[in-house]
Amino acid sequence: MYHFRKPALLAAAILFWGCKKEKKDSDADLGHGAVTTIEILLVQGGDTLRGRYKDPDGPGGRPPAIDTLKPVANTNYTYFIRLFNESGNPVQELTSTIFEQQKNTHQLFILPEPDTTFAKVTPTDADDLGRPVGGRGIYEQRQGGGRPGALHFILRHYLNPADKNFGLERGSTDLDVRLPVVGQ
């Protein structure tokens, strides 16, 4: 019995000391609530267009409230994104937490559908290493004439800031929704 216990204790010690905790970025430890609402503001001169996807009870509950964005064709806008957690009371605005405090571990991808011939999105904000964040930028509506399309929003959260270099291939998804767009 003595001979059996000694190797078992040795194996347990190797496992205990051999396993390392995953090193996390300090920004990732801040955490944030669930993103239930995304709002895009398109500003051109004195005009502002707003589109919103709101699902406060999350998937499987009541259907989300979804606006249709109607930008003018062949027009450039400055875009701003606002993020909220509306699942509780009070409502939490997450915009500055995600796009400023945790910018090194988040990236919002805004993918025009069907493709970039319909619209083009160019982020102008960057994290500390110059990588796009996606909270603001330039939105160009290319097609009009009542043609329908969509903006596909994917918010990725990376535990390790280096994983952000791999874009959509790494990290976890904090938000994945589509907002209908009709080019006017």
In short:
The protein is mainly beta and 184 residues long. It has helices at 2-18, 95-101; strands at 37-44, 47-54, 65-66, 75-85, 92-93, 106-113, 119-123, 136-141, 147-157, 172-183.
Rg over CA atoms, rounded to whole Å, is 22 Å
| Proportion of beta-strand residues | 35-45%
SSE order: HEEEEEHEEEEE
What's the helix count?
A: 2
Poorly predicted ranges (pLDDT <50, ≥5 residues)? Answer: 7-30
Q: What is the mean pLDDT?
A: 86
What general form does the structure show? Answer: globular
Number of strands: 10
Q: What is the CA–CA distance across the termini? A: 82 Å
Keywords:
7-stranded antiparallel β-sheet; 184 residues; globular; 3-stranded antiparallel β-sheet
Structure overview:
With 184 residues, the chain is mainly β. It has 2 helices and 10 strands. The protein has helices at 2-18, 95-101; strands spanning 37-44, 47-54, 65-66, 75-85, 92-93, 106-113, 119-123, 136-141, 147-157, 172-183. Strands 1, 2, 3, 4, 5, 7 and 8 form a 7-stranded antiparallel beta sheet that branches. The longest helix has 17 residues, at 2-18. It is globular, with a radius of gyration of 22 Å. It starts with a helix and ends with a strand. 27% of the residues are buried. Residues 7-30 have low confidence and may be disordered.
